[in-house]
């Protein structure tokens, strides 16, 4: 009986030690400096770069939550896309370049460097750009 109690106590202590070693790292603020935002951030190991159909996108995600909300910096080359249903609620602040957003009802919004814009999930329309860099925040889950 004593052996069983010692074994159980040993397992309990080992389990506690293991739980302490796998604790998540503490949350910390993430900064993208003004200098990095000019473009050098996209050479970091965290940068994701994709090219599809001659259109290149680059981004660095600074935050991703369990509900798939995210924040980061993003750059894209020229594109002209019809969007059947925008995938997320998104706020964007354009650092340079811009975009012309033409909603399905014909409403046109010109967004340029220094502007912020919010697009709701499900928006339908056309996205046309000569290229841009922006900070973005998606929210409300996917």
What report would you give on this structure?
- With 142 residues, the protein is of the alpha+beta class.
- The chain has one domain (30-139): Jelly Rolls.
- Helix content is 17%, strand content 48%.
- The protein is globular, with a radius of gyration of 23 Å.
- Residues 1-19 have low confidence and may be disordered.
Summarize this, please?
The protein has 142 residues and is an alpha+beta fold. It has one domain (30-139): Jelly Rolls (Sandwich), CATH 2.60.120.10.
Mean pLDDT, all residues: 85
> Do you know the CATH architecture?
Sandwich
Q: State the domain count.
A: 1
Question: Which range best describes the helical content: under 10%, 10-25%, 25-40%, 40-55%, 55-70% or over 70%?
Answer: 10-25%
Number of strands: 7
Shape: globular
Kindly provide the radius of gyration, computed on alpha-carbon positions and rounded to a whole number of angstroms: 23 Å
What is the string of helix and strand elements? HHEEEEEEE
Strand content: over 45%
CATH homologous superfamily classification: Jelly Rolls
Given as residue ranges, the uncertain stretches (5+ residues, pLDDT < 50) are 1-19
CATH hierarchy, class: Mainly Beta
Continuous helix count: 2
Sheet with the most strands? 7 strands, antiparallel
* CATH structural fold name: Jelly Rolls
Which class best fits the helix and strand makeup?
Answer: alpha+beta
Distance from first to last alpha carbon: 54 Å
């Amino acid at each position: 009986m004593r052996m069983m109690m010692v074994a159980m106590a040993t397992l309990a202590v080992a389990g506690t030690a293991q739980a302490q070693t796998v604790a998540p790292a503490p949350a910390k603020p993430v900064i993208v400096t003004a200098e990095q935002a000019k473009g050098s951030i996209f050479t970091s190991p965290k940068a994701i770069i994709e090219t599809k159909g001659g259109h290149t996108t680059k981004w660095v995600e600074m935050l991703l939550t369990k509900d798939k909300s995210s924040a980061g910096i993003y750059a894209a080359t020229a594109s002209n896309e019809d969007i059947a249903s925008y995938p997320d609620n998104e706020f964007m602040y354009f650092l340079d370049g811009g975009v012309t957003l033409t909603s399905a009802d014909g409403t046109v919004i010109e967004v340029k460097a220094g502007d912020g814009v919010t697009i709701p999930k499900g928006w339908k329309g056309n996205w046309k750009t000569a290229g841009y860099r922006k900070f973005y925040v998606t929210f409300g889950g996917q």
